[in-house]
Amino acid sequence: MSFYNSQAVLIVAAILFVLGLIGVLTRKNIIFILISIEVMLNAAGLAFVAAGSRWGQPDGQVMFLFILAMAASEVSVGLALVMQTYHQHKTLDAEKLRALRD
Amino acid sequence: MHQYLFLIPALPLAGFLLLSLGGRHLSRKIIAWIGVGSVSAAAIFTIILGLQFLQAPPPEGSYTQTLWQWMSTENFSCAINLRVDALSLVFLFIITFVGALIHIYSSAFMRHDRDYARFFASMNLFVCAMLLLVLADNLVLMYLGWEGVGLCSYLLIGFWYETPANCHAANKAFYVTRIGDTAMAIGLFLLFKELGTLNIPEILQQAPQHFTAASPNITLIALLLLAGGMGKSAQLPLQTWLPDAMAGPSPVSALIHAATMVTAGVYLIARMHVVFQLSPVAMDVTAIVGALTLFIAGCSALVQTDIKRILAYSTISQIGYMFLALGVGAWSAAIFHFFTHAFFKALLFLAAGAIIESLHHEHDIFKMGGLRKKMPLVFWTFLAGAAALAALPLISAGFFSKDQILWYAWSAGNGSPMLWFVALAGAFITAFYTTRLMIVVFWGEMKTHIGEYPGRAMTIPLVILAILSVIAGFIEWPHNMVHLTLFSDLVQKVLPATMLQDDLPEEIVFQIIAAATALFGVYTGYVFYQGNKALIEEWKQSSALMQIRNFLFKGWAFDQLYDALFVRPFKFLTRINKSDLFDKLYNGIALVSRRLNQLFSISQNGSLRWYIVGVLIGIIFILTLQLML
Description:
The structure holds two protein chains of two kinds. Chain A is mainly α. Chain A is built from three helices and no strands. Chain A has a domain at 28-89: Helix Hairpins, CATH 1.10.287.3510. The radius of gyration of chain A is 17 Å and the shape is elongated. Chain B folds into two domains: 2-171 and 330-559, no CATH class; 579-628, no CATH class. Chain B has a two-stranded antiparallel sheet with strand order 1-2. In chain B, helix 3 (86-109) packs antiparallel against helix 4. The longest helix of chain B is centred in the N-terminal third of the chain and has 32 residues, at 164-195.
């Protein structure tokens, strides 16, 4: 009953996840790191939806709603922190913000 | 009246509790009232009790009051029992009465001190502990008082704790007396093992039946008890702490290190006289220790320059006389010398304290001088005390008690001409250094300006003690003079009468020799320090004499000897044991964890991306594990 191959969708999700991960690892700007995290979250959400569709269950879509809500709150808190960081340190470079070291 | 016996130690205890808990919030006047009042009230109770005791002696010879059961097990029970007999009554009177006078004196002497309340709290606690010591009817309670006075002695020697030397002196007093106390505790254990009781009347009753005379056990017990007494009473070889104990305030020296605590050893031996009588060896050792101590300490007193150290050595020497008397079996003579000594030595310390305070805390007698005209009252009272110390015949209390000891040192059952001769030499030395002290301090020219004259609260106790130093001897006369033996009649209700040897020379011969020796000592002192001063200066040129002088000055170098024998080897042992196997093990554990800490703290570098990599590696690791298993 599916119009698409769920395996292909999972591959797309995996590619998205890895792209996000690479973004998190390589980017220096905190905003870009946040965006990359969003990409990774959406990749996870896509995987849930695909899996739900494969088994004919609503759970996958329910999980995506949860992930959406979680991502929204995370971004709001994250962006507020980014604003404060920028006010105090005049930079958003994660490599320069190293006050929390031993 | 004797149902109020508990009040005598309880009043100073209450004073201690009030002052130690609330002293911070009380004014100086109230502190003095509490501190002095508690001991004075105890003194009044003691005097009333004593009068009643003398008027109507209880049939069993003692008042006993049971307060409560302390501990009770299958074969051992111990109660808080207070017991007054003739012997403890004498001590009770000295502790409370002389104690009250010294407290009155201290209220003025310590008036500028920051820790006024702490001083009186410690003094009150001391009086309470000392009263417990002499009132106890069992040796456990007595040991409690014994350790209590040791503690207070420690607290009061180190009263001015900001000077390191004072703390050192306090520690030394504590350690050295602890040696004696440990020996005494072992003696008590042995006594309990043998007799199954530590109740004093029961011990005195059962010991003669249980032990055969001169059995090794009783000798061991008696020697261990003697060691306890030697520690507390600063007798050879544990005498080194007392001269240093003069670091405390003068009233402390007067009360603890002259009148009361240091005679606790005399009390212990007199109290346990049955045990000692069963062991001739212990009696001989006691007499020899006393004789040696009185001579050695007397020689050291000859060359001291610190007024309080002179008095300290003379205290050791006078307690040596008491031990000698106990050792030869002259029990009542020892207690009588304690009685007179308490008055005149407390007086000398208090007068010395008044001088020291007036001369801006000057201790060196050669920087004093000429005080006879400037401080006449202190001079006359000091003179009364010094006369008693030097045992000037017939006009001083010290003569009556010391003459008795000298006579018994030869004539008593255990006495010998040798002991008598040492005691006589000691009497000469005593008279000599007393004269030296008097002349150097009170004659000659003024060397230090007098700051503040002692007030009435300080002079009244001096006057009372001075009167007692003169008349206290009149209650006991030698047998061949006025036949008045009030003191020995009282004490011999508890202690056995002194046995005399047969075929003795006339007593009057000894008295004349003793009196002549004392007078000759005074005369020699006068010649050296007033008549022919050049002689001393001449002697100072000779290096051999100066070496002897320095040897005596250091108290026969006992401190150096103990340092080489015990302190340094002990320190060496601790040093080589500092890094043994176990220390290495535990230090190794500490070292490994410190290294690991350093290693891991490198990873905490504050870089966000490094942390993410760390998380990622962790996730991959877990996933791989999951897939493989």
